[in-house]
Amino acid sequence: MGKVLVIGAGGVATVACHKIAQNSDVFTEIMIASRTKAKCDKIVEAIGNPNIKTAQVDADSVDELVKLFNDFKPELVVNLALPYQDLTIMEACLQCGVNYLDTANYEPKDEAHFEYSWQWAYKKRFEDAGLTAILGCGFDPGVSGVYTAYAAKHHFDEITHLDIVDCNAGNHHKAFATNFNPEINIREITQKGLYYKDGQWLETDPLSVHQPITYPNIGPRESYLMHHEELESLVKNYPTIKQARFWMTFGQQYLTYLDVIQNIGMSRIDEMEYEAPLADGSGKNVKVKIVPLQFLKAVLPNPQDLGENYEGETSIGCRIRGIKDGKERTYYVYNNCSHQEAYKETGMQGVSYTTGVPAMIGAMMFFKGLWKRPGVWNVEEFDPDPFMEQLNKQGLPWHEVFDGDLEL
Ligand code: NDP
After folding, report:
1. For position 141, what pLDDT does the model report?
2. In a 10 Å sphere around its CB, with 0-12 CB exposed, 13-18 middle and 19+ buried, how is residue 99 labelled?
3. pLDDT at 117
4. Which residues line ligand 1 (CB under 6 A)?
5. pLDDT tens, 213-263?
6. CA of 84 to the centre of ligand 1 (A)
7. pLDDT (tens digit, 9 = 90+) per residue, 367-380?
8. What is each CA distance from 246 to 64, 83, 92, 141, 236, in whole angstroms?
9. Distance from CA of residue 237 to its chain's centroid?
10. Which of 102, 99, 131 is nearest to 118 (CA)?
């Protein structure tokens, strides 16, 4: 029924591929392609299904992608590489008549800035080609949008306030590490905060607005207001929203390290000249260009290696205020995910798990014909019910609290 090509072989792709392989009634032919083929082969070995094909591809090159798509002829490409590759992969999909799904919106490499305009610009071309593109189908963005759509469909006539709350209460026993790609992660966190209020976007200094929020089974954790991409599509798709914000927890030690990294210039994303020794062992030096943040990534712990000693859990949810039958009501829907359980099942920690599972479910929705509509769509524009049902079946069960104190 479903011929799928996964691009990328990192933590998220590893989880998504495990889950894709578990759902063999939906996904009948699978290929994993990435920059480093050996990493794709490692995933296949871990899954233990030799029928999964692998390939090498540079997803920055439309020509290479087109060649690969024409060889394998997938019906859907699941893009789990980096946000930098979104547009080249979408372009290749259009050239080859392939549908598209991703978990993070496009970012140019030289500018830490995310917004959907670049990808929304493809809407007409996907529509004309009769192809579906599903954007932002991880947890946040992803499940956060599905939760909001589910709340709007079943529990509210009008949503007025939305707070997405993302807590990682896990401990990986490293002094400093990021839970997903360090370059993408640090770019995201060091940006200015942004939230939506009464029709306007308001900017805040990075991590300057914070307060404790109590997370189920975890307790209070200091949570920081940040910009997050799904706010942009959610306020557009739910115009009754007066205020939309995104909060994420950080420990004090993490913030101290982050501060140092910024102050010593290691979070810079511009190129600089560096004199490096030649690899031929001659003792001579050569001038090379490096991007400090990319260099930092090379020395930080690999997020994929955090799983083994990771304890504790994540808790991500939507806290919503609005009107139902003329009365104000609150609603909180969330999932808690254990790092250890995620590791036992897929060899990856909870942050990769909470992203990879929804990516697989989105692909399943597509192949079942439930989320299949020509154009470029954010997840909340599809029916949330079958997706919510699968979250419960595929390892990310959700819980609801009605009319509780939202604390926000
Ligand atoms: P990783 O860095 O672990 O993996 C990225 C993979 O992409 C690597 O295998 C890498 O190859 C591959 N890759 C990078 N550049 C290219 C290229 N030019 N051509 C082909 N392959 C390439 O990242 P994660 O798995 O942690 O994250 C994957 C995606 O998920 C990211 O876009 C991230 O932003 C997103 N994400 C979304 C979340 C959500 O909730 N929506 C949460 C967390 C992540 P190589 O192995 O050779 O380096």
Report:
1. 98
2. buried
3. 93
4. 8-13, 34-36, 39, 57-60, 80-83, 85, 103-104, 138-142, 180-181, 184, 303-304, 352, 355
5. 999 999 999 999 999 999 999 999 999 999 999 999 999 999 999 999 999
6. 9
7. 999 999 999 999 99
8. 37, 20, 33, 11, 16
9. 20
10. 102
**Which residues are within 8 A (CB) of 206 and not within 5 positions of it... i.e. 6 or more apart?**
189, 190, 191, 192, 193
- Please say whether the beta carbons of 64 and 57 come within 8 A: yes
The CA R_g of the chain, rounded to the nearest whole Å, is 21
Cα of 170 from ligand 1 centre, angstroms: 21
Burial 147-157 (b: 16+ CB within 10 A, else e): bbbbbbeebbe
Torsion on CA atoms 69, 57, 113, 303, rounded to nearest 10: 120
- Looking at ligand 1, which atom is closest to the CA of residue 137? 41
In one-letter notation, the amino acid at residue 362 is G
Q: How far apart are CA 232 and CA 379, in angstroms?
A: 13
Tell the residue number behind the tokens 């798990």, with chain if given: 353
pLDDT < 70: residue spans in the chain: none
80 alpha carbon to ligand 1 midpoint, in Å? Answer: 5
Please state, in angstroms and rounded to a whole number, the distance separating the CA atoms of residues 141 and 323: 24
C-alpha 13 to ligand 1 mean position (Å): 8
Q: Which residues contact 217 (CB under 8 A, 6 or more apart)?
A: 313, 315, 336
Q: Long-range contacts: 69-75, Cβ < 8 Å, 24+?
A: 69/5, 69/93, 69/95, 69/96, 69/98, 70/96, 72/3, 72/5, 72/31, 73/3, 74/3, 74/4, 74/5, 74/31, 74/98, 75/2, 75/3, 75/4, 75/99, 75/367
* Cβ atoms of residues 241 and 319 within 8 Å: no
